[in-house]
Amino acid sequence: MVTSTSRLLTAICALAGSAAAVTPLKVQGKDFVNSKTGDRFQILGVDYQPGGSSGFSKDSDPLSDGDVCMRDAALMQRLGINTIRVYNLEPTLDHNKCASIFNAAGIYMILDVNSPLTNGYLDRTAPWTTYTNAYYHQVFGVIEAFKAFDNTLGFFAGNEVINEDATRLAPAYVRAVIRDMKDYIAKQSDRAIPVGYSAADVRDILMDTSNYFECEMKNSTSSRADFFGLNSYSWCGDASYKSSGFDVLTQDFSNATLPVFFSEYGCNEVKPRIFTEVQALYGEEMTQAFSGGLVYEWTQEENEYGLVKIDDDGSVTTLIDFDNLQKQFNKLDISRITTSNSTQTSVTPPTCDPSLISNSTFYNAWNLPEAPSKVSDYIKNGLPNKPVGALVSVTGGKIPQKVVNHNGKEISNVELKVLASDAVNTPSPSNDDSSSSSTSGTSTGTATASSSSGASTKTNAASSLNGAPAVALGGVSGFFMLLASLL
């Protein structure tokens, strides 16, 4: 006879191997959708590059310091962020702690595969000179470093490569990079991870750029972008849907057949920023064309776009822009914007044709360059000496860094809350200076997360950020409910 104690121990062992992780997203028509439930996913995001370009090197990038990520993820939970974008990454560094922290916090990651270092980017003026085998050690290295994380939403193959300074052939090279990345993911990843492009808001060529990446090529279906990002700063101060030109953008992208979102937004010509564009972006008109957006940017740098200011000792000041954005997020009807819509998911892309391109200066052919000599081998056999990413255990709780608001008042209750399995962080009106963070999912500040969902993910349930063992039990309340049912 099996005793209650034995059954309890068996259940605990089963739970220890379970995942407190977000669910991978997939592209369906013009929406990102939850791969389990089919619910629509709208990006409530922020661009995350602490220290700016000078904060990146071969020895350090935004996702290589677990203590910093823990601090920032806890604050992002309060704000209501569900996605970050990271521009510069060094694939050889250890990103397991940071990726696991954001996963536990219910926050997805969109990652640029390029870097400003040598062999890390495409030269827009002569892309054929940088489209090399060495370049793909950076591109495929980032894929390898992050493919195991369920909260890896997607990869950007390029950022503002195509603009007034770019050579006419630049679009073909970027689309070739998308092709090579998608072919690599298809062979070397256990799941499909979307790949897209982030465009500058150059209106003369914006729709040509979108059409170029969106259309389907009969002989190269893998080169089609899975999503399209737009860096747009046309809404400044207390503008309006029409005065900002958001109405034009909505019309332009209303017939898109892939997810479109603002990969950067948040004009700071008028300070402080009040973020009234949030209500338009997530309003009924724009959500038919856009999948949300990422505010530029998390930390205060010389350009003064920050939501928070980081002091030399690691302490944080939440700026007035943080509070203003939080108030706008808290007004949103999350239920409405995440409701699935069959008209959004059933669209089909157009066939590539020169008629899709209206500007005479834009490249109107889809003759993509052949991949560099060793790339086909990398795709078939994997990148040599590739990095390996795997989720590690995360223990939630109060962060050690001091946090004050823009008035100098200390915020004493900032904590990382490990969400229940499949939960995503959402805004909550209770997240203010006098209340604790409240996020979606059944969780507590002392819960832990140990692995990604999916059998293929490697689990390190015996390690945690502070070196102490941690076990994923799906939240304390879930544990006691289980205990009561077994005894």
Automatic annotation (TrEMBL):
Enzyme class name: transferase
Pfam entry (one): Glyco_hydro_72
GO CC annotation terms, alphabetical: plasma membrane; side of membrane
Protein's recorded name: 1,3-beta-glucanosyltransferase
Protein family per UniProt: Belongs to the glycosyl hydrolase 72 family.
Record's signal peptide: 1-21
Keyword field: Glycoprotein, GPI-anchor, Lipoprotein, Membrane, Signal, Transferase
Subcellular location: Cell membrane
Listed Low complexity bias regions: 426-461
Keyword Metal-binding: no
Region (Disordered): 423-461
Source organism: Penicillium oxalicum (strain 114-2 / CGMCC 5302) (Penicillium decumbens)
Bilayer disposition of the protein: Lipid-anchor; GPI-anchor
PANTHER family: 1,3-BETA-GLUCANOSYLTRANSFERASE GAS1, 1,3-BETA-GLUCANOSYLTRANSFERASE GAS3-RELATED
EC number: 2.4.1.-
Function: Splits internally a 1,3-beta-glucan molecule and transfers the newly generated reducing end (the donor) to the non-reducing end of another 1,3-beta-glucan molecule (the acceptor) forming a 1,3-beta linkage, resulting in the elongation of 1,3-beta-glucan chains in the cell wall. Involved in cell wall morphogenesis.
Biological-process GO terms, alphabetical: fungal-type cell wall (1->3)-beta-D-glucan biosynthetic process; fungal-type cell wall organization
A Gene Ontology molecular function term of the record: 1,3-beta-glucanosyltransferase activity
